[in-house]
Write a structure and sequence with these properties.
Mean pLDDT: 95
CATH topology: Aminopeptidase
Strand content: 35-45%
Strand order of the largest sheet: 1-2-3-4-5-7-6
Oligomer: single chain
CATH architecture: 3-Layer(aba) Sandwich
Low-confidence stretches: none
Shape: globular
Bound molecules: coenzyme A
Number of domains: 1
Number of helices: 3
Structural class: alpha+beta
Order of helices and strands: EHEEEHEHEE
């Protein structure tokens, strides 16, 4: 029986997908980010038949575009293994994280969305804000946000 499980994971479990799907230009040892081990940071993984297929990291950080009275989290390094894309894995990940964020009384989830990923975030209710900006080695991005 095929089994899908969405759960909190340790940061090191994100590295393989980060490297393969998100940052192929980086080396494995550079696939951690400074905020990975902060107490308020959490990582979500979706497993298909015990294999990790989708990941996302949620970091307590304000974006000054939003009023600081709002409690904010940032989504970083969201990716689904190529073979599993468009199979609702990313959607399950976001829905799972939303519950956790709402329990923490977070009001805004924001991210720097890659141009290609904008339709994915829009399907999940995120809005865009402002113009495109370029992130070196990756490409065009837009700020996106979701009121929780
Ligand atoms: C963007 C990404 C994370 C989406 O993950 P995913 O697991 O494929 O997404 P899902 O299958 O859960 O998609 C949810 C919905 O968005 C839609 N969607 C996903 N990617 C899409 C795209 N590129 N264009 C249009 N619609 C898209 C799906 O069709 C689905 O719609 P539905 O609910 O009507 O069926 C994944 O494609 C990916 O890892 N891309 C490469 C890395 C990347 O760009 N990450 C984002 C960094 S900001």
């Amino acid at each position: 029986m095929k089994e899908i499980e969405t759960t909190l994971i340790k940061s090191h479990l994100t590295h393989q997908i980060r490297r393969k799907v998100l940052w192929p230009h980086k080396k494995q040892e550079n696939c951690s980010i400074n905020e990975d081990l902060l107490e308020e940071t959490f990582h979500v993984g979706v497993f298909f038949n015990k294999e990790i297929v989708s990941i996302g990291t949620f970091i307590k950080t304000n974006n000054k575009v939003f009023e600081s009275k709002y409690s904010q989290y940032r989504l970083r390094a969201m990716g689904t293994n190529k073979d599993y894309q468009k199979k609702s894995m990313g959607k399950q990940l976001i829905l799972y994280a939303k519950k956790i964020l709402i329990e923490k009384n977070v009001e805004i989830l924001w991210c720097d969305a890659r141009k290609k990923a904008i339709p994915f975030y829009q399907k999940l209710g995120f809005k865009t804000k402002g113009n495109y900006y370029k992130i070196p080695e990756i490409g065009l991005h837009k700020l996106m946000y979701l009121y929780l």
